[in-house]
Amino acid sequence: MRIDLHAHSSASDGTQPPADVVCRAAAAGLDVVALTDHDTTDGWVEAIGALPAGLTLVPGAEVSAVVDDGGRAVGVHMLAYLFHEGDPALAAELHRLRNDRSDRARQMVTLLQELGAPVEWEQVLAEANGAPIGRPHIARVLVATGAVATEDDAFMPDWLADGGRAWAPKHAVEPRHVVALVRAAGGVTVVAHPGARERGRVVSDAVIESLAEAGLDGMEVDHPDHDPATRQRLRAIAADLGLVVTGSSDDHGEGTGHRLGCETTSPAAYQELLERAQLPPVSA
Ligand code: AMP
Ligand code: ZN
Ligand code: FE
Ligand code: FE
Q: With a 6 A CB cut-off, is 197 part of the ligand 1 pocket?
């Protein structure tokens, strides 16, 4: 059984439509794939409608959270799975996160313009095409206009990196609150890529402990941004705290070079998450 529990579509900042993501998942030899777009469940319906025979979909989302870690604001991405989409409290929080992304993207475009970068708000809107706007959308416009050579270059401190010249913070919810909201909506939570050092979003052990106390279900240990030493360290923490260990590609389509299935979750870990969630996954 090949299981990948983290993938994005054009419903957020992935490059491929949800139907294409599930087809590519099947083509990559996966038996299970989770659709985890940033702060939205909008891709679920299309993904379910296009589900190839033999592939199981775990409906999910990657919720933007921020925690005060000893006086420093640290972004934490919370993977949420198998929750009731219509749960009013969770739906309201996701709505708020999406609205704020739009305001924040406008701020970043203004900052870029002040820095002399050739980018128009309309181009960013067209690139996002109705999806919650993320920095990758702005980065793609910067590449298209020739301001930078690659998307990664756009994430340098000169431009959109955390704390960079053209970066603006986004509204985010407390990760412990995400755990509670998702639990109340019948779902389970897994902290995403907590050791992604080069992207400046290492989540401290203290924060992981406090999330575990709040009812966090699992930790994404096998992630393309985690080096072997990081994985080993995180695996030990997860074992200590009784967290389910997952592995996932965090595929964004072309944005990450089509890597569905490059990291996987063990069937036992997957079963454990299913047992903790109220809703079953979806099969064709
Ligand atoms: P945002 O959610 O708008 O803050 O944008 C962050 C997203 O940009 C992450 O989810 C990543 O998928 C993507 N991204 C791509 N390249 C980078 C990078 N070099 N550093 C940080 N984020 C990146
Ligand atoms: Zn993303
Ligand atoms: Fe993430
Ligand atoms: Fe992601």
A: no
Query: Is 254's C-beta closer than 6 angstroms to any atom of ligand 1?
Result: no
> Is 206 in contact with 182 (CB distance < 8 Å)?
no
Q: What type of residue is 127?
A: E
Q: Which long-range contacts (CB under 8 A, 24 or more apart) does 39-42 make?
A: 39/12, 39/63, 39/64, 39/94, 39/97, 39/98, 39/101, 39/132, 40/11, 40/12, 40/94, 40/98, 40/131, 40/132, 41/85, 41/94, 42/11, 42/131
104 alpha carbon, closest ligand: 1
Contact 55, 22 (CB under 8 A): yes
Which pair of tokens denotes residue 96?
């708020």
Closest residue to atom 18 of ligand 1, CA basis = 155
Cα Dmax for the chain: 53
CA dist 146 and 150 (Å) reads: 9
Q: What percent of the chain has pLDDT over 90?
A: 92
Distance (Å, whole) CA 159 – CA 66: 21
Rg of the chain on CA atoms, in Å: 18
Q: Where are the alpha helices (DSSP H) in the chain?
A: 18-27, 44-49, 88-114, 121-128, 135-144, 151-154, 175-184, 205-213, 228-241, 267-276
Mean pLDDT by 10 residues, the chain (284 residues): 98 98 98 98 98 98 93 92 98 95 96 97 97 97 97 96 93 94 98 86 92 98 97 98 98 96 98 98 94
Atom of ligand 1 nearest to the CA of 152: 19
pTM: 0.95
Measured by CA distance, the residue closest to atom 16 of ligand 1 is 152
111-155 tens-digit pLDDT: 999 999 999 999 999 999 999 999 999 999 999 999 999 999 999
